[in-house]
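User: I'm writing a tutorial on reading structure tokens. Could you give me a worked example: one chain, its sequence, then its tokens, then a sentence or two explaining what the tokens reveal?
Assistant: Sure. Here is the example chain.
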Amino acid sequence: MEHPRVRLATTYHSSVAVEHDEVTGRPGSHQATRANIVEAVKRGIALKVAVLHAGDQARAERARAEHQAVG
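And here are its predicted structure tokens:
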């Protein structure tokens, strides 16, 4: 069962899995984070994603563009 007031917030470090996992220090975190974001969008869950650039603005822009494409 889904709760109507569920909201989700997460951080996203890169559209490139290896870069994201490197920042988080957790192998597979990119895949899990992206899958959860896609699922939240699919379910209509309110979502806030903080794109952290860690000194690489271009990487942050690619990540932001990826999320805009997801919805």
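What the tokens reveal: The beta strands are 7-12, 46-51. The chain is about 50% helix and 15% strand.
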